């Protein structure tokens, strides 16, 4: 179980690359690097690729919603869900 949980992603800090207000989606660049083992056994930090078309979720309750302007360079947190 421990090894399975070690590779389970739940949240990822990212930087907004672009925002589509019509689709309410962003393309984001992960703000962290991951360690990858080289063939010689040494570790290398590697950038993660751009994540396109991430849905933007606004806080909503009681028939109201809070929305904010989104622009390139904004920080965000991408949440991963399982089925």
From TrEMBL:
Transmembrane stretches, start-end: none
All copies of the Phage protein Gp138 N-terminal domain together span 12-83
Give the highest taxon in the source lineage.
Bacteria
Xref: InterPro entries: Gp138_N (IPR041599), Vgr_OB-fold_dom_sf (IPR037026)
**Protein name, entry field:** Phage protein Gp138 N-terminal domain-containing protein
């Amino acid at each position: 179980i421990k090894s399975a949980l070690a590779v389970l992603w739940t949240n990822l800090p990212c930087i907004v690359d672009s925002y589509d207000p019509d689709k309410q989606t962003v393309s984001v660049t992960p703000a962290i690097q991951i360690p990858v083992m080289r063939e010689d056994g040494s570790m290398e930090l590697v950038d993660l690729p751009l994540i396109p078309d991430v849905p933007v979720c606004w806080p909503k309750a009681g028939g109201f919603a809070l929305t904010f302007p989104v622009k390139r360079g904004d920080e965000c947190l991408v949440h991963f869900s399982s089925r």
